[in-house]
Specification:
alpha/beta; 375 residues; elongated
Length: 375
Amino acid sequence: MNSRLMSIIRKEFIQIFRDVRTLAMILVIPIMQLFLLGYSATNDVRNVPLAVLDQSRSPQSRALLDAYRAADYFRIAYDVQSEAEIETLISSGKARAAVIIPPDYAQRLSDGNAQVAFILDGSDPTSASTALSAAQLISQSHSTEILTESFARTGMNLKAQPPVTVHTTVWYNPDLVSAYFMIPGVIGMILYAIAAILTASSVVRERERGTIEQLIVTPIRSWELIVGKLMPYVILGFFNTIEVLAFGHWWFGMPIRGDLGLILLLSVVFLITGLGIGLFASTIANTQQEAMLTVWMTLLPSIFLSGFFFPLEAMPTVLRWLSYLMPLRYYLVIIRSLLLKDVSLVMIQTDVIAMTLFAVGIMAAAALRFRKRLD
């Protein structure tokens, strides 16, 4: 290898190691991807929140519920007193499934033809499919156990028909169409990614070209500069939201059951979060490359820990707790609930408040830091 080539290679390595911030990001991002994909990339759903309406209150019904507890697919989270409570819990996303045990369950079980109703939230097809299979499997296993005990006790031949059957009903997305789940997620990702990346790049580009100094010496105020830089991306993000909603509805048949005005309003609130992250990244980075890497450092966890691809119920407890730090998590709950369930604002008020606090906090911190940098 000749000396000229070695000199160029040495020069490039010197430049790489001088940019410590970019080098650190390049080394951290693969490790972040490894851990996020290793622990969050799974559809093996566990601990699905289950609401129970036990109208029988008999030893037989408790035995059935014990069978659900024993399997780690479900977590009995709510003991309700009416079907209206079940509707409220599933509509608000607090429960993903519900089981209704009729008052005559014990008598019908002794006759060999007991039935229970199982309701599933179909807005998340992955969780719903797993829960559906698990509910049927638990029922069959419990039926086999009852038949085995009956045979051991009486010595009579086993019946061909299982004594317990589960009748399943899927709400909001009966056919479990994956597009109905993914399209709202795409809207969230577009709002977050485009707003953050374009905002960060546009501000840093001004600094690289030296035009930011020209803007500073003009009579324009700091807040006017911030609003002027961000407003085009608010308009573009708003247009993208309408665009994806329209194509998703007309081409993929995705329902829009909620108030369209409320959907757009809350989308703008979430858009402010992406703009704030992009603005904050622009105050950290000195080049467009650094700005892009900084945004990607926040984008990767949001993709994997928000419920965009993989159900949160399938993740380890630590990652589920970390997901509460991702604004995208709250927006996905909001937009999926509004589009597929037509819920009221009261049912999603916790997520709306959390998302709004994130938007205000991130934008305020970014604006203050950006203003200081201008000064």
